[in-house]
Design goal:
2 domains; 44% helix; elongated; 7-stranded mixed beta sheet
């Protein structure tokens, strides 16, 4: 009888440990998908104009991208590259980063913060020059070719839509390779070109109101890339969506296995000592 009681307690302890691990903490990302992403930031001359909130369109764009990066899972499910463009393109890298022109495996917080530091440092350089949007999309397509073959590819284009180069041939090339384009318009529709961005995009986001929290909007793009199922109420308990459970269990699988083995071995030792 004592053995039975012991094993009941053992099973209960294991269940509690398992539940705690799956419940996890806020640091575990809920997105249950993998994706390769290139972010294109327009830093041409028209992006220097005030957005209506005391910051230039470029500053607003970079601030939104920084918030997007801060919300990114750091467990390796996302590979990200960043390109700024005007009359030429420049890949955003940092000291000690992999070769120029490749995607970064977002597998640690240090990678995210290194990219953010680089973007913040570049904000002191004012936007200038013509916008070669087509050339930028072509470079983004090439960068995505350095990524993984078994995940979806995305280009996130943050711009006021003003360009001095027809982007359509590069847009068609990207689409022929299965790349989805998400455009984020930041500007004034009366003087900028939101219609072009809408036309070339699979997903179009219009931000023309200076009071909008651009960071929250860009962070919400992950819900477009990895749709999150609405949690459901079961027996008075809120059950997390499938993507969230998948992400948490996958992230903590080695720990779950180790705990299970400890309980099994401990139980066996106690059982043998009482035999």
């Amino acid at each position: 009888m004592r053995r039975l009681a012991f094993f009941i307690v053992l099973i209960a302890m294991a269940a509690v440990a398992l539940s705690a691990l799956i419940a996890g903490s806020a640091e575990i990302c809920p997105q249950g998908c993998n994706a390769d992403i290139v972010i294109l930031i327009d830093r041409s001359g028209t992006m220097a104009a005030d957005f209506g909130n005391g910051s230039s369109k470029y500053e607003v764009a970079v601030g939104g991208v920084i918030d997007f990066l801060n919300s990114t899972c750091t467990d390796g499910r996302f590979w990200i590259g960043i390109i700024e463009f005007m009359y030429f393109t420049e890949n955003i890298t940092y000291l000690g980063s992999p070769s120029n022109g490749v995607l970064f495996n977002i597998s640690s917080e240090s990678v995210v913060q290194s990219l953010i530091s680089r973007l913040e440092a570049r904000m002191i350089i004012p936007p200038v020059g013509l916008s070669m949007m087509g050339y930028a999309i072509g470079n983004a397509t090439n960068m995505l070719s350095t990524g993984r073959d078994d995940v979806d590819d995305y280009i996130i284009l943050v711009s006021d839509g003003v360009t001095h180069q027809d982007p359509w041939s590069q847009v068609d090339n990207a689409r022929s390779k299965g790349i989805k384009i998400i455009s984020v318009f930041i500007g004034d529709p009366r003087v900028d070109n939101d219609e072009l961005l809408a036309d070339i995009s699979d997903i179009f986001i219009n931000i023309s109101d200076p009071s909008v929290d651009v960071g929250s909007v860009l962070t919400g793009i992950y819900n477009q890339i990895c749709p999150v199922r609405t949690p459901v109420l079961v027996g008075g308990l809120i059950v997390p969506n499938d993507n969230e459970v998948e992400a948490r269990v996958a992230h903590r699988l080695p720990t779950l296995i180790a705990i299970a083995l400890i309980f099994i071995v401990s139980g066996y030792i106690v059982y043998r000592s009482n035999s």
